[in-house]
Backbone:
């Protein structure tokens, strides 16, 4: 009684459940691999840009460098570019109200932050869904398989353990597959959520620090 034979001998509905769970597991691992690479790259880009930003480089020069790579920007680079672009536009328009300039600059950075986080969170709801419903799908397959097995055995006068064990084992495989699909998805979702929260905090902290620098520049020019 091999694992393969148990799957092949399962009832059609249980086999469909197993196929669904296998597909969900494959999709889950594909998302995990993809999101791992993307979040690692986002963290690397963030650290690199912050190092360059705090190196004492002229902000106008840094802005021009970002403008030359406009279509490649992401993360802090995009937030900085959007904020500085709006700051320069409002300042050069002749607007004298410092508070309005900074409010517009911060709003521009906030929009970029929202877009960047939306991009980083892509497919995470799928992981959460797989992690939450896979055990129930597996349990449904198990309940159906066991019910089907006992209905078939009810027609037999002398049922033995040897007759009951294989169909029950077939049904229990569905629960095992449900857990196999759910556990990695839940672990990965929690791990990614923690990393995203740290990135979001880093982005917000940068926005606050960058706004303070720009506000200070406006104040010195006003004097």
Residues:
């Amino acid at each position: 009684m091999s694992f393969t034979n148990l799957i092949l001998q399962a009832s059609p509905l249980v086999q469909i459940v197993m196929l669904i769970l296998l597909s969900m597991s494959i999709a889950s691992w594909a998302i995990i691999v993809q999101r791992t690479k993307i979040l690692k790259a986002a963290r690397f880009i963030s650290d690199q840009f912050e190092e360059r930003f705090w190196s004492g480089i002229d902000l106008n020069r840094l802005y021009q460098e970002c403008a030359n790579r406009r279509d490649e920007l992401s993360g802090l680079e995009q937030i900085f570019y959007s904020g500085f672009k709006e700051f320069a536009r409002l300042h050069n328009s002749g607007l004298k109200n410092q508070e309005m300039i900074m409010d517009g600059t911060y709003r521009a950075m906030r929009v970029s932050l929202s877009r960047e986080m939306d991009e980083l969170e892509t497919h995470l709801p799928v992981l959460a869904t797989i992690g939450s419903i896979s055990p129930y799908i597996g349990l449904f397959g198990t309940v159906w398989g066991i019910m089907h097995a006992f209905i078939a055995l009810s027609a037999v006068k002398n049922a033995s353990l040897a007759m009951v064990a294989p169909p029950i084992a077939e049904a229990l495989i569905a629960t095992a597959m449900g857990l196999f699909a759910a556990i990695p998805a839940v672990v990965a979702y929690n791990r990614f959520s923690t990393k995203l929260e740290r990135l979001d905090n880093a982005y917000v902290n940068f926005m606050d620090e960058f706004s303070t620098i720009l506000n200070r520049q406006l104040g010195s020019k006003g004097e």
Remarks:
- The CA atoms of residues 15 and 156 lie 24 Å apart.
